[in-house]
Specification:
With 155 residues, the chain is an alpha/beta fold. Helices cover 56% and strands 11% of the residues.
Length: 155
Amino acid sequence: MSVCLVDTSILCNLIPVPGRDQDQQAVEAGLTGHINKGVALLLPLAAVLETGNHVARLADGRQRRQVALRFSQIVRQAIEGKTPFTPTPFFEPDAVRHWLDEFPDAAMRGLGLADLSIIKEFKRQCELHPHRRVFIWSLDRHPASYQRPARPPTP
């Protein structure tokens, strides 16, 4: 079984968030494919927070409320284990301290703190699941480049 971290660009298409849902059909097809293959779908807190920010910035108040209700429902169901998504753990203070140590260099490469936290979670999942494929599912090229193939167990 593979382990997949769901990026903000994917979550925005699944909610859907108007103006950020241009790949909705392809993402929904991808989700169905991942579910059928038994892929473990992890929902990073950073993706939840970023998606919530995109929802809050919708100009149309009525639309903003409808999308916010759907977003809240989906995230709540994920927390309750009622969706195919499993939320990643909340940030540990020691981990955040390490991220902050790395952040100035990451920022110089154009990498935000939310993306850095998702990449750190990717690396953590690789350590937790040394023989499984681990990847970030994203429509953005940089996060999508984080893919580690399955590795056979050593005899």
